[in-house]
Write a structure and sequence with these properties.
A hairpin with a 4-residue loop joins β3 and β4. The strands form two sheets. This protein has a three-stranded antiparallel β-sheet with strand order 2-1-5, with helices on one face. A two-stranded antiparallel ribbon has the order 3-4. The protein is mainly alpha-helical. It has nine helices and five strands, in the order αααααααβαββββα. It starts with 20 loop residues before the first helix and ends with a helix.
Length: about 280
């Protein structure tokens, strides 16, 4: 009796879900608005206090004639006392609202994109959210709140250093003003970096979760080059099939990773619907 030849099914995939530039830009604007409010209050307060400090220290154009460390410490302490709330709480409710809105939009976008791609492939399926879905949303909201909160302590540490350095070097008002404005530009850039990284991260994490929720187990890694460079390990991963529960091994970090998981990773994946199609037949 001739043995039956078992043909391997052709692998079928659907497009991945790219990060939304619109959601990313909106999130960056929201964070930047909070930063600018903080910077505006800090600039006004610091310049007023520094002007009084210069007058009390009889400052020349080059350096203070009679420098008193105690007065400088009083200036630093005044800054910390005035802006301590930014470091400890920084509009906790508003931060939570911004992060929740951001994650909620990505959740809807990834689900709508996945269902649309399945429909184009001829699959209409009821979407059932798993028990792990809501905890993941809450985890991502909390992570983003903490990221935004981390901006304030770093900003005021650097601002304090600007004040101390300016006092020691006898900088005039125009000079310290410019140094603070330069610091503000760097801090505002942080808003864009957070938005880029977290939009990629949240999009892929939710896409993986939602894809698994409908019974898809595997995906094909799609490498997307970074703005300036790409991880060699991720270039090598391009086109490889992986288990959505496990990811692929990245030797640079010594563990398995998923698309979008590492900082500023823009990689995506194509869900493998081969088994889903077989079950539909």
């Amino acid at each position: 009796m001739a043995s039956k030849i078992r043909r391997r099914r052709r692998q079928v995939t659907i497009p991945g879900i790219p990060a939304s530039v619109g959601i990313q830009n909106e999130y960056a604007r929201s964070i930047r608005r909070l930063i600018k409010q903080m910077e505006k209050a800090a600039l006004k307060f610091v310049l007023e206090k520094y002007k009084l400090f210069r007058a009390s220290e009889m400052v020349t154009n080059d350096a203070p004639v009679d420098f008193d460390n105690r007065r400088l410490q009083q200036l630093v302490d005044a800054i910390k006392a005035r802006f301590g709330r930014y470091i400890s709480e920084w509009e906790a409710e508003e931060l939570d609202a911004i992060a929740s809105k951001f994650i909620g939009k990505i959740d809807k976008q990834t689900k709508a994109g996945l269902m649309a791609n399945l429909k184009k492939a001829g699959i209409v399926i009821d979407f059932h959210i798993s028990a792990l879905h809501q905890p993941l949303l809450e985890e991502m909201v909390a992570s983003n709140v903490n990221l935004i909160k981390s901006i304030a302590p770093k900003y005021f540490d650097k601002l304090t250093n600007v004040v101390i350095d300016s006092a020691l070097k006898g900088r005039d008002m125009a000079s310290i003003f410019q140094h603070i404005k330069d610091l503000n530009k760097v801090t505002e850039r942080r808003a864009e970096l957070i938005a880029i990284d977290q939009t990629n991260k949240a999009t892929q994490a939710l896409n993986v979760m939602q894809t698994k929720d409908i019974g898809i187990k595997k995906g094909i890694w799609i490498h997307i080059p970074g703005e300036k460079s790409s991880r060699k390990t991720h270039i090598a991963m391009n086109g490889k099939t992986f288990d959505l529960d496990e990811g692929l091994y990245d030797e640079d970090v010594g563990r398995n990773v998923l698309p979008g998981e590492l900082p500023y990773c823009r990689c995506d994946f194509r869900p493998d619907i081969t088994e889903l199609l077989a079950n539909e037949q």
